[in-house]
Write a structure and sequence with these properties.
Helices cover 35% and strands 20% of the residues. The protein contains eleven helices and eight strands. The chain has an eight-stranded mixed β-sheet, with helices on both faces. α4 links the parallel β3 and β4.
């Protein structure tokens, strides 16, 4: 069958060949246990504390009613002034893998802007299906807002951010905060967010054994989260924000996605509908980018452009706010 998606950027294609030796393009339910043990997700303290320039603290917050406590990783640049902005970070991993230590470029933003990172450890599917992940993330946000001053942060300058599944959960948290009268959010940074369980867009079907997180992987993640409800009428907009029909009243958004990834079309549509709802939104579609390309190939030209563009948006938001 001829390829229907755009070509992968040549520089990134070379890296992807190496990446596939450690992370396959197709993930099934049988692969989950092995992937969780993959050392790529074991980020050491040294990478987070950056030679002692960042303080690391592990805290906990009450979980949703009847659920265990939620672990929160707090990262503060040394010498940070009180009243610093806060990046509330939600990690990626297709709802099935990953952990709070995978903060990626968000820590760079904190160091560059004098901010704090609070990264939430939410329960993973399939052991903990919806609504466990989104409720954990929302409870973690409530704690972050309530105790922001105690960790040196400003409760009125919280930006929610996440990549992939974390981006979808970040969008869901923003919706929950609006609908439940929760903490005010300064902004939302949704990096290649996982938003739609229905798999109805062209890009959700384009990748088969190619790139990162192909159509089968996407089915694996959503099935783990939603089970038999996936694709049906009984799915919350907080679990799958692409289903939300009212996007008004949400905080300013940055949305970006690669042109060669499963989430492309749903992310473009979500950004367009945010704009139509009056939400200030910046959208980027990175030509030739596969899912998570900037984290896997940070020195590639496209990765540097994408990283610089996100960082610039964050700076402008913090300056204005």
């Amino acid at each position: 069958m001829p390829r229907t998606h755009p070509p992968i950027d040549p520089e990134l294609a070379e890296v992807l060949t190496v990446v596939h030796q450690h992370l396959p393009p197709t993930i099934t339910a049988e692969d989950i246990e092995g992937l969780r043990a993959n050392p790529v997700f074991a980020v050491p303290d040294e990478a987070l504390t950056r030679d002692g320039t960042v303080q690391l603290e592990n805290l906990s917050a009450p979980g949703p009613s009847g659920a265990p406590e939620i672990s929160l990783l707090v990262l503060r640049p040394v010498g940070l002034a009180v009243g610093a902005p806060v990046f509330y970070h939600i990690h990626g991993g297709g709802m099935i893998i990953g952990n709070s230590r995978g903060v990626g470029s968000v820590l760079d933003w904190a160091v560059d802007n004098g901010a704090i990172v609070v990264s939430v450890e939410y329960r993973l599917a399939p052991e903990h299906p919806d609504p466990a992940p989104i409720e954990d993330c929302y409870e973690g946000l409530l704690w972050t807002h309530r105790l922001a001053a105690e960790i040196g942060g400003d409760p009125d300058r919280i930006i929610v951010t996440g990549t992939s599944a974390g981006g979808g959960l970040a969008a869901g948290v923003a919706l929950l905060a609006r609908d439940r009268g929760g903490p005010p959010l300064l902004g939302q940074v949704l990096m290649c967010p996982m938003l739609d369980d229905r798999l109805i867009t062209p890009s959700s079907r384009e990748l088969d054994g190619e790139g990162i997180w192909d159509a089968t992987s996407n089915m694996t993640g959503w099935n783990a989260l939603l089970g038999e409800r996936r694709g049906g009428s009984d799915v919350s907009v907080y679990a799958a924000p692409a289903r939300a029909t009212d996007l008004s009243g949400l905080p300013p958004a940055f949305v970006d996605v690669g042109s060669v990834e499963t989430f492309r079309d749903e992310d473009i549509d979500y950004a367009a509908r945010l704009l139509q709802a009056g939400v200030q939104t910046e959208l980027h579609v990175w030509p030739g980018g596969f899912h998570g390309f900037d984290g896997m190939a940070p020195q590639a030209s496209l990765s540097r452009i994408a990283s610089e563009t996100r960082a610039a948006w964050v700076r402008r938001l913090l300056t204005a706010g």
